[in-house]
């Protein structure tokens, strides 16, 4: 049997009317979907671009942004804000760079404003104790040097996860580096994290959150000793660090339109702890109770978990899930921070020593 090869029929001309109608129908569906998506994005833009006028009082504005020309009127954008997210990402990269350049990092909880931003810090290893924890660093500033009041930085180790024992929502991070002068720590930079709860009915209620970096003032740092801003003493240099960069965002309450008469409607909102410190396991030789001993797990170098407020979050509501971890487990103090922010850091206390 012979099999005849199949003939290929070539049709001349363009598309049929049915084919054209099908293409036009598909195009209409695609364009319609695009228009709906664009409309949704446009409608949602106001909720991500609102701002709050002057949520900070003049004292805080001057303190938070020392050396900045924007201390008189300063609006804060409303969360979530993805433009502010870009600034936060830039600051994250700077923080990682600063960590690598540091010889020691100390995190301290703070009760209010910070007025201590020195250029250098005096330290004599022959007369001063070893600075192997943030607590000892605080003691060095308060007792040895007497440069800050005891109430400025909290006498504190680690928090319990209860409403009564959560730490302050303010923290200062000192990043120290090598100095060319004997017995002086050079302060590479200082980071400050503040989460201010605003409950006054005369203002927009919510939280003003900011992370700010302070570094060498390019003008004062070059002044000779004895001029304005210069000079030094046994406590270190008087030259103050200046505001370098940062980000800020305003979080509305998790309860829409809170009733001013019901002050407890959003009391569970907040951002704590800002950091947790883990000490060396060798410190278990000194029994100090479960609340403190559970954090003594570092094999060699002590380290921190640090969280920054996330400009991409809608609010600072606590997770709805209950904390079922036992109090002997260190995770009990911070497991509620999981998923609340994309800005979490694992930072060594002594990266270069």
Average pLDDT rating: 81
Low-confidence stretches: 35-48, 221-231
SSE succession: HEHEHEEHEEEEEEEHEEE
Shape: globular
Rg for CA atoms:
28 Å
Number of helices: 5
Beta-strand percent range: 15-25%
Major beta sheet, specifics?
Answer: 6 strands, antiparallel
What structural class do the secondary elements suggest?
Answer: alpha+beta
Distance between the first and last residues' Cα: 90 Å
Got a strand count? Answer: 14
**Helicity range:** 10-25%
Provide tags for this entry.
20% helix, 5 helices, alpha+beta, six-stranded antiparallel β-sheet, 353 residues, single chain, four-stranded mixed β-sheet
Task: Provide structural commentary.
The protein is an alpha+beta fold. The chain has a domain at 52-265. It is built from five helices and 14 strands. The protein has helices at residues 17-44, 58-64, 82-100, 134-144, 290-293; strands at residues 51-52, 76-77, 104-109, 120-122, 170-177, 184-198, 206-216, 232-233, 236-237, 241-251, 275-280, 296-298, 303-307, 344-348. The strands form four sheets. Strands 3, 4, 5, 6, 7 and 10 form a six-stranded antiparallel beta sheet that branches. A four-stranded mixed beta sheet has the order 12-11-13-14, with no helix packed on it. The longest helix has 28 residues, at 17-44. The model is unreliable at 35-48 and 221-231 (pLDDT under 50).
């Amino acid at each position: 049997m012979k099999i005849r090869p199949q003939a290929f029929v070539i049709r001349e001309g363009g598309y049929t009317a049915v084919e054209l109608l099908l293409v036009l129908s598909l195009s209409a569906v695609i364009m319609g979907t695009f228009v709906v998506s664009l409309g949704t994005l446009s409608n949602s833009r106001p909720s991500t671009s609102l701002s709050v006028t002057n949520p900070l009082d003049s004292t805080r504005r001057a303190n938070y942004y020392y050396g900045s020309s924007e201390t008189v009127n300063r609006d804060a954008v409303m969360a979530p804000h993805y433009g502010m997210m870009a600034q936060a990402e830039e600051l994250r990269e700077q923080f990682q760079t600063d960590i690598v350049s540091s010889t020691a990092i100390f995190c301290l909880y703070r009760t209010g404003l910070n007025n201590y931003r020195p250029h250098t810090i005096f330290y004599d290893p022959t007369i001063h104790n070893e600075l192997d924890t943030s607590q000892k660093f605080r003691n060095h500033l308060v007792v040895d040097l007497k440069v800050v009041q005891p109430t400025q930085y909290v006498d504190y180790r680690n928090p319990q996860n209860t409403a009564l024992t959560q730490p302050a929502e303010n923290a200062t991070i000192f990043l120290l580096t090598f100095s060319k002068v004997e017995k002086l720590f050079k302060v590479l930079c200082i980071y400050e994290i503040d989460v201010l709860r605003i409950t006054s009915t005369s203002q927009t209620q919510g939280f003003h959150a900011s992370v700010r970096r302070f570094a060498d003032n390019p003008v004062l740092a070059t002044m000779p000793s004895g001029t304005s801003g210069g000079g030094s003493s046994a406590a270190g240099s008087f030259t103050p660090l200046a505001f370098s960069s940062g980000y800020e965002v305003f979080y509305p309450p998790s309860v829409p339109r809170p009733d001013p008469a019901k002050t407890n409607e959003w009391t569970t909102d907040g951002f704590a702890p800002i950091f947790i410190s883990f000490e060396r396991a060798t410190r278990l030789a000194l029994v100090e109770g479960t609340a403190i001993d559970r954090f003594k797990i570092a094999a060699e170098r002590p380290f921190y978990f640090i969280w920054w407020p996330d400009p991409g979050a809608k609010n600072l509501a606590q997770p709805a899930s209950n904390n079922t971890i036992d109090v002997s487990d260190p995770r009990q103090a911070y497991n509620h921070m999981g998923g609340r922010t994309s800005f979490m850091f694992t930072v060594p206390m002594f990266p270069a020593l």
